[in-house]
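User: Predict the complex.
Assistant: Input components as received:
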Amino acid sequence: MHDDARPPGILTASWLVARKDLAIEFRTRTAFLAAVVFALLGVTIFYFAWDSTAVAAMDLAPGVLWVIFTFSALLGLQRSFGVEQADRAIDALLAAPVEREAIYLGKALANLAFVVGVEAITLPALALFYNLPVGEVFLPLAGVAVLAAIGIVAVGTLFSSMAVNTRLAELLLPMLSLPFFLPIVMTAAQTTARLLAGRPIADAWPWLRILVGFDVVFIVACTLAYPFTVEE
Amino acid sequence: MSAPSHIADDSDVAVEAESLVRAFGGRPVVDGVSFTLRAGECLAVFGPNGAGKTTLLRLLSGLLKPSAGSCRVGGVVLRSGSRARAQVGFVSHAGMLYSALTARENVEFSARLYGLRSPADAARRALTAMRVADRSETPVRSLSRGLQQRVSIARAIVHEPRVLLCDEPYTGLDDVGSAALTEALTERRASGAALVVVTHNLGEGLALATHAAIMRRGRFARYEQRGGVDATSYVREYRELVTTDA
Amino acid sequence: MTDRIQHHGVDSLATSARGTDWILLSGFAALAAVYVRVIWFTPIEASQGSAQKILYVHATSAFVALYLAFALMAVASALYLWLRDETLDRVAESSAEVGLAFTTVVLITGPLWGKPIWGAWWTWDARLTATLFLWLLILGYLLMRGAIDDRAMRARFSAVLGLLTALLIPFIHLTVYLFRTMHPMPIVLKPSQPSMPPEMQWTFFPSFLALTLLFAGLLRARYRYATLRDAVLDMENAS
């Protein structure tokens, strides 16, 4: 080994892994484009799934938004450990002198960028198509979107690493993840509904509190759990 | 089974396996393997399919935890995140590369994971050593199988490991690739690395080895220093040993 | 040598498995006895009529599923990650599957009771929803188990999922509860139980015991099956 080499710390290693994943995604762009197209299709299909004279688009929007976000996030998560599994690149990562937690956090960070990226395109699109008054509440709305994305990614990254090792592979991921997304979808949709209705953020506080709690609990739990899923 | 005796001090011991055992679902695949390699030495491990050779390498690389026994690199037990891992390089039969990234990006990523001071230079050196430097900006996906193998080897040696583990490293390489590999392995040994090479090809293995082992049913059925081995009779004895098993 | 020991182990297990399972048998007998009491010897509740009698199997099954089966699964999962004993994985597997059966009973008897009392088969009440999701989670858990061949990996993955599920259930309960309290819904009649008359209590508590006994019997039988199955696999691997 080089005498002056110093294996990276947990944060540096996470950043290296995340940057590598984003470079792959940027190079191929397949998953991201697929997720965006999926999300936009969802926005339009949902619009016609209800009678727009009976249900106002305003009332539909929060639910549509969060169902679409979670499902399109799954597209990115599915691919997350697929690229590691293809040529057993995960073995090189595991054999390297980096903490397992750093691998998880790096993958999660890249997935977070993916999900937030999809949200950044879908949210304005939804606002446009559904005539939503997002102008004044855009910042708090973006904040909720990021909080929800953190929860989705924390759980989804772990399950993605588990699912690729099973015979069901990508079929298993939604089955494991969606029940875990229920508290996220509910809290985020409820908060969004209140924000869009022009009510003060304090009204949504009971929901936000649960969402933040979920994020904290599952980031910690999944980071600690990840090493158990890879050690052989 | 004659283990070579070493009288020299332990300071230059590169890798040390002590009664390594690894079982899957109650079945031992590696069943009590011990050996010691010093700087510059090379162990060639031969054996039929399913003898446990690959599992042995995965134990030595730290990818698998031993069910019993231990494995030390430079006197330190391999553990997750331990610095001992930084001294090991692993050429597996899977390429362990990202197909969307270029050869350079793959090797450089590895260099960064091992914390090299100048990852770009190290990557260029390793790719040049494996004679794929001219293709370094090509995505791995577009490289032929043999060239991918060379990039994979470059990835494994970029951090100049003290212990290099190779699983059938010559498979898929053409003449240029084989020559580059032999040269790289020789260079690694000259600078103090120990090698463990797993192969079916006895000629290839014996040409490199200072120690030779025949693995059968998870154990070293034979283990000796290369010096005391006559290649022709070794091949014959290997055949006998392996066929009597079946 | 190890083969012989394993053979012996399997033989003795197989022999004991062939005998009458008295625990399981008495569990079923107790359940039958409780039912006789529920149907013929317990008074009919004034406001709900005979539909209320479903309480004796619904509430007790819910108790067994949640506080025995899934608590056991979560504890066995946590202990597995710590001790790495295959026995614990088999306990987790068995209690998940038996728990699934009890949860299914809860989900079937719930609507049956709800329809005449609440006027709807299903209400998105916090407990019902949490139970439904628990049922889905355990189905996913068992599906994942079936999709992994390597036994050690299966045990680790299952233990991780088992623990995360235990963390998730409070969140589901909390959000659904909040959902209900913040959205005024048509008032549904909640079967509040002020103080049960003694005759009802004398049916209620024995039915707890009967279902607990049945759970123990089923769990033991399922656990034995898992042990035998793994022993057979070990033998096949060894040869």
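Chain A has a mean pLDDT of 90.
Let me know if you want any component modeled separately.
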